[in-house]
Write a structure and sequence with these properties.
Blueprint (H helix, E strand, L loop, with lengths): L7 E2 L3 E2 L5 E9 L3 E10 L5 E3 L7 H11 L7 E3 L5 H4 L2 H7 L4 E4 L1 H9 L7 E3 L6 E3 L2 E6 L11 E4 L4 E5 L5 E2 L11 H15 L8 H14 L3 E4 L10 H11 L12 H8 L1
Parallel strand pairs: 5-6, 6-7, 7-8, 12-14
Antiparallel strand pairs: 1-3, 2-3, 3-4, 4-5, 4-13, 9-10, 10-11, 11-12
Helix pairs in contact: 6-7
The structure holds fe (ii) ion (2 copies).
One fe (ii) ion binds next to helix 2.
């Protein structure tokens, strides 16, 4: 597959047991590009997870409406309120009169600050789950993230894990699945993107991060749905191992130009 030179919507396809991915690819000059994924579950109460890039709004809505009658959409799960995840939220809400936005208190507050309609928010209190007719979506904090309202989930029926921004990777071109990416390319892209998107990983408690990764492996999700990575169809272990090796094993060699110590040194 060639590298697109503009944001591009890709074909929707299966994402594990009974989820669909609506994938896009955002080129980043000099760095390859980044997957921008939304996900759809077409059950009795359909769920859309995130709403894509505003720049691809017409294409995104057409792709979504090819999958589902938006009059039937019941839930829009917001991973967080970054622009690459809520780009078409208002347009989807306009066309989906039954849909409620699933988020937490901070997510709702940020929606209000952005001028978005909060009257259709379904507020998830701490510890609450989203109950669907045949499964629950259990909110789950991914191992790293870039906005404190971030909510991933584990689907109790399909055992798909939605990881929000976690495990995102810069890639030279779009790929159909994690398994189709050359291992070194995956490692380099994941480590570079995690350093950009979650720079606090460099100063995180490595043991605590390692325990979180191990706990995630024990949950044993069947599929990993990341907002910024092709779908991982063979579970989470490959991804947690890459994060562990990058951020838990060795001291960071790179100097953060914005760290207090570096600034103090520069000031003498
Ligand atoms: Fe984000
Ligand atoms: Fe993101």
């Amino acid at each position: 597959m060639t590298t697109p030179d503009a944001p591009t919507l890709l074909d929707a396809r299966c994402a594990g047991h009974d989820w669909r991915v609506l994938p896009a690819f955002l080129p980043l000059p000099g760095m390859g590009g980044l997957a921008i994924n939304a996900f759809l579950h077409k059950g009795r109460e359909p769920v859309l997870v995130d709403t894509g890039l505003a720049a691809l709004g017409d294409d995104f809505l057409a792709a979504l409406e090819a999958e589902i009658d938006l009059a039937d959409l019941r839930w829009i799960w917001l991973s967080h309120t970054d622009a690459d995840h809520i780009g078409n939220l208002a347009r989807v809400l306009d066309r989906a009169p039954q849909a409620k936005v699933v988020t937490n208190f901070l997510g709702m507050g940020k929606m209000g600050l952005l001028g978005l309609d909060v009257s259709r928010v379904h507020l998830l209190e701490p510890g609450a789950r989203l109950k669907l007719p045949d499964r629950e979506l259990v909110p789950l904090r991914p191992p790293y993230y870039d906005a404190p309202e971030t909510l991933g989930f584990l689907d109790t029926r399909s055992r798909a894990f939605f990881a929000a921004d976690s495990f995102g990777a810069l890639l030279p071109q779009p790929a159909e699945s994690v398994e189709a990416i050359e291992p070194t390319t995956l490692r380099d892209g994941l480590v570079t993107w995690s350093a950009l998107d979650a720079p606090w990983l460099a100063t995180a408690d490595r043991d605590a991060l390692g325990r979180t990764l191990t706990a995630l492996e024990r949950l044993a999700p069947a599929t990993v749905l990341s907002g910024h990575l092709p779908v991982a169809e063979n579970g989470v272990a490959t991804l947690t191992a890459l994060v562990h090796d990058a951020w838990c094993a060795a001291p960071m060699a790179a100097v953060d130009p914005h760290a207090i110590e570096t600034v103090a040194e520069a000031l003498g």
